Amino acid sequence: MTPAELAAALSLPGRVAIPWTDPACDPARPVTLHCYRGCRATPDSPVVLVQHGMGRNGDEYRDFWVPAADRHGLLVVATTFAKADWPEAEHYNNGLVLDGQGRVRPRGAWAYAIPLRVFAALRDAGVTRRPRAHLFGHSAGGQFGHRLLSTQPHDLLEAVTVGNPGWYSLPVLDAPFPAGLGGIGLGDAEVERLLAYPMTILAGDRDTETSGPSLPSQPEAVAQGPHRFARAHAYLAAGRAEAARRGVACNWRLVPVAGIGHDGAAMSRVCAALWFEGRLIDAGEAGAAAQGAL
After folding, report:
1. What is the DSSP letter of 112?
2. pTM score above 0.85
3. Residue 208 to residues 88, 159, 215, 259, 265: CA-CA distances in angstroms?
4. Which residues pair with 8 in a beta bridge?
5. Which residue, 242, 103, 262, is CA-closest to 174?
6. Other Cβ atoms within 10 Å of 78 Cβ, number
């Protein structure tokens, strides 16, 4: 898609689905940009990059952000990795870092680079003049989001919040990816850059399922805790321990969210209120449901 075509597709307020191919990653694996331009959005408005869960429902995750987009004049872009082209966790959650034989692919070909290249294309097209974007990911998208922050440059990122990931890549080099960050070409500089970034981890205090098809159950995941709420605390503790070992700061924060379980819609509203209103809303205001989107 040319810059002019991208600008035309996003020239009016409302929803639009834009097919997108990233040649640097894998041209045989397209994605879809499910976008919403708020009614008051301008090229100087914040851009929110959204990463969906294992349901690959980027259109729904985009829609979770529509009220905030209209209220605050946002441009929302949910880069959607469809099951047909990105079928397994290795392709989406784990970023296509390794090929089918377990070999490390070139870093520029990792799927984690795609949302940032989309944002760069939005800038090149004049859709936005913002130098940096906000990034939110929930569930599998939270796995994607914190691994993106772990592996990619931060110069295009204004704020990063992840909600309810099923498990985490610990900020250590002595555990192989995806349990840690070892064996994929990262070094001390990347780990310390990750620890320094003020990432926010949202953890629903009712996200306490200990089994089920969407909860990662490999030994490395179980070692982080019995459920997502515990694993969020374990990840923060691991970050602080690694930072202390290195003699650097860990600037992450964990925000427990009372009354919310594994609910992508509610967590999206919580994140929007934190970013753009500076407040933590309660479960009732967030519209928490008994069963949210993955």
Report:
1. G
2. yes
3. 24, 27, 10, 11, 17
4. none
5. 242
6. 28
Closest Cα partner for 100 from 91, 108, 109? 91
Residue 131, amino acid = P
CATH topology of domain 3-286: Rossmann fold (3.40.50)
Summarize pLDDT for 61-97 with one digit per residue, the tens: 999 999 999 999 999 999 999 999 999 999 999 999 9
User: What is the chain's length?
Assistant: 294
Sign of CA dihedral 94, 96, 100, 105: negative
Number of CB atoms found within 10 A of residue 212's CB: 10
Q: Render pLDDT for 83-135 as a digit per residue (tens, 0 to 9).
A: 999 999 999 999 999 998 999 999 999 999 999 999 999 999 999 999 999 99
Number of other residues whose CB lies within 10 A of the CB of residue 156: 19
**Contact predicate 47/77, CB 8 Å:** yes
Break the chain into its structural domains and give their ranges.
3-286
